[in-house]
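I'll show a record.
***
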Amino acid sequence: MPDATASALPLAGTAGPRSLRAVARALFALTKPRIIELLLVTTIPTMLLAERGLPSARVLLVTLAGGALAAGSANTINCYIDRDIDAVMRRTSRRPLARPAPMAVVKPREALIFGIVLGAAATALLGTMVNWLSAILADAAILFYVFVYTIGLKRRTASNIVVGGAAGCFPVLVGWSAVTGRVSLPAIVLFAVIFFWTPPHFWALAMKFRDDYAAASVPMLPVVAPATVVARKILIYSYVMVASTLALAPYAGWLYTVCAAGLGAWFLAEAHRLHARVNRAAAVVPATVMPAPARSTPSPVAAAPGRAPAAPGRAPAAPGRAPAAPGLASAAPGPVAAGGGAASGTAAADGGREVDEGTCAGIARPGANPASMRLFHLSIAYLTLLFAAIAVVSLLPWGRW
């Protein structure tokens, strides 16, 4: 008896039939599951802190499920809107909607419907089984990410991630309101922590992949400003972020304060390390801003191209094959972007691993830019450990003032 998951479905514009399993995997990849994991890492400790212990299993599980559905909705619609530039950027060229038509498993229209259904399911689940404030906040996160960040800011301003990053802060508000039925000052402090954490986290990644963003005409800060400016702003935001974590001390207790101070010192040391390394490289090679390739800015709702266009200066990919990743999803542009990292030619010569679809970083060979990528990875570890400390002190009967 044939496996039901392997039953074939016809798909216009593809080389052959598709299986239900392939469609399910593609739709799952569109939700960017690794980003959802990080969002849930902040939701659970927030709920524990709001309850000062363990909330009911039903509220905890339903809130996590609703939050995951809301995040998956926002990420899927983001992939639908950005499918044109995802096809241009090597880091994202393996996402399901960015693939050439003969290799596509999911149609754009199907992805959009899937994203809307996920959002509706999140609203219904949170509203009926938790409370409507949590549902409204989850909907606000979706709308903010789609309309403010993806459509409004991403392709227009270097401040895109500063303002747009607020979408990733909503899970703490959802988690807090799910437990208490309101949004209190500690939840706003946690919102601020993630808000100021986001620029250093994302700019460190964008320093590595500035070629990608420039090719797609996306004005991320490392594309439009010298590396020295980016490193300085990373340092400034890092200090504000650490100060925000300490603002929670009166509510979370002395044990949390010790953990936050130690983790903050660790993060600031790495931010200073990146800043010093970039400045040393700039003293040897004057910093320049890499101009974006001369091409029209893609429309946020433009139809996805039949094939991913070749990056400027590169031959088009061979028919039937995905573009080869030059070591990393994009080659580092030398000392300016890497702060002393490998040159573009060296990175391209390595011919590295493929990037897993749905990943946030898309990292195959981080050695080409160890300074910024080290900070990027550390930022994830930092946020995870900080919220783990919040969870622990929320459950302990001691450690408070």
Summary: The chain has 17 helices and two strands.
